[in-house]
Fold:
Amino acid sequence: MSDIRHLIDISTLTVEEIDALIKTALDIIENPAKYSEKCRGKKLATLFYEPSTRTRLSFESAMLELGGSVIGFSEAQSSSASKGESVADTAKVISCFADIIAMRHPLEGAPMVAALNASIPVINAGDGGHNHPTQTLTDLLTIYREKGRLGHMTVGCCGDLKFGRTVHSLIAAMSRYEGVDFVLISPEELRVPENVRNDILKANNIPYRETESLLEAMPDLDILYMTRVQRERFISEADYVRLKDTYIMTPDKLMDAKETLSILHPLPRVNEISVAVDKDPRACYFRQVLNGKYIRMALILMLLGVK
Ligand code: CP
Structure:
């Protein structure tokens, strides 16, 4: 059996491993020079079959800041996928050129197929509406840096909880820390999928409630995780248009929020957070972006076995 380590789903990392990644990321932040040659001679391949700004460029920045190099493609059309090459074959081919792969794909499970066929580590950089484990690591580092802890808090997830893969991964990860409860804020049509409700929340007796009212939930929240309504996953454009502006965070809606609230968003945002909120010190989403680079540096080191 291969001992190559991949990251496809956040639940394959133990809490101890997540804590170690956070510790490494914090050390990178404090001592960047110590890490600047750690991946000299190593190559990261970014295989992005779906658009991205943060994830792809933060992976590439992460590898460059570790002294390594980057190859890859940013759209399926510019790769041989456009000629019909399978993900499995692509993974075998890229294994000849690179040391580690970060893959984003619109089909759920595609990075898993790549992992089964690659001879190098594969990182899921987002697969359909399924999972986005490195966004979750980013979110966890952000929560840790903002709050100084990962347990004992009320986490509100708001928006498109059905298609929002970052929410599914975040709930899976935060459920493993003590004293965490969730308020799931969404329109009826965009509630979390049954598997998240049953296999994670109910199966582990995690306290949660579901509501359509952000204002009603606000006073209880320590974390507010806002999400965009995922237009690209809707079958009906009319449904998207009807639901897209259900929640628009403006400064007045924070009136009853805790002074210690932290507002996260995986970005990109569309309308769901007004730019007027950006000035509020509780808005963490741009600090969150930077954390993404540091935690991806830590992850690359871990998967490549670099001490
Ligand atoms: N948060 C996130 O995944 O952003 P991108 O789609 O820009 O990578």
Observations:
- Strands lie at 43-48, 69-73, 100-105, 122-127, 153-158, 180-185, 208-211, 223-226, 262-264.
- The chain has two domains: 10-131+292-304, 134-288.
- The mean pLDDT is 95.
- Residues 52-55, 126, 135, 266-268 surround phosphoric acid mono(formamide)ester (CB under 6 Å).
